[in-house]
Amino acid sequence: MAPLTTKPLYFGSYLVTSQVFHLTPLSFALVNLKPLLPGHVLVSPRRVVPRLADLSQAEVSDLFLTVQRVGRMVERVYKASSLNVAIQDGADAGQSVPHLHTHIIPRQKADLDSRGGGDAIYQMLEGEEGDIGRQMRQRELERPKFPTVDNESRNPRSEDEMLKEAEWLTNEMAQEESR
Q1: Each residue of 3-51: pLDDT tens digit?
Q2: How far apart are CA 14 and CA 146, in angstroms?
Q3: Which residues are catalytic?
Q4: Which H helix or E strand runs over 22?
Q5: Contacts of 18 (CB under 8 A, 6+ apart)
Q6: pLDDT for the residue numbered 103
Q7: Per DSSP, which regions of 2-147 are E strands?
């Protein structure tokens, strides 16, 4: 399946066109390099801005309608009973890529009991495993070289894995929009 657009899409300074599974005139949804839980995706405005307050009214509306649509689809296809929807609005709030983005994380009953309960997701977002910027920078550094071993519990996914998920979710979004 071809990408949704031939124009390059950036998440901050990172080219993510192949990870994008849903596009609107002002927003896009992409699969995550290192999801905290299966189905963890991001929704971002097309215009690269660091903060929610930087968006126009039209961009805010489009972003949140896209979050709602993508969240409904993610909940359905990942058989979730709930969602975490989170924005880290600025560096001091934990934002690691200076491009506004909304995390959509599908949840199931007791899915994080082994990590202390449902609120553990916030520590995961704030901690090293939620540092998308570090993960993207590491991915950029590793591209021309042999891949390094990631000793963390979550391993970065390959371009092919993310492309396959993006293609699958593109089809799922088409089904969602026809409902």
Answers
A1: 788 899 999 999 999 999 999 999 999 999 889 999 999 999 999 999 9
A2: 20
A3: 101
A4: strand 20-23
A5: 3, 159, 162, 163, 166
A6: 96
A7: 10-11, 14-15, 20-23, 27-31, 41-45, 82-87, 102-107
8 Å CB contact between 99 and 12? yes
3-state secondary structure of 173: helix
Whole-angstrom Cα distance, residue 111 to residue 18?
29
User: Is the distance from CB of 96 to CB of 131 less than 8 angstroms?
Assistant: yes
Amino acid 88 reads Q
Both tokens assigned to 31? 């699969």
Residue 145 confidence class, pLDDT cut points 50, 70, 90 = very low
Worst-scoring range by mean pLDDT, 29-38, 65-74, 78-87, 133-142?
133-142
Q: pLDDT at position 146, please? A: 41
Q: Are 66 and 27 in contact (CB under 8 A)?
A: yes
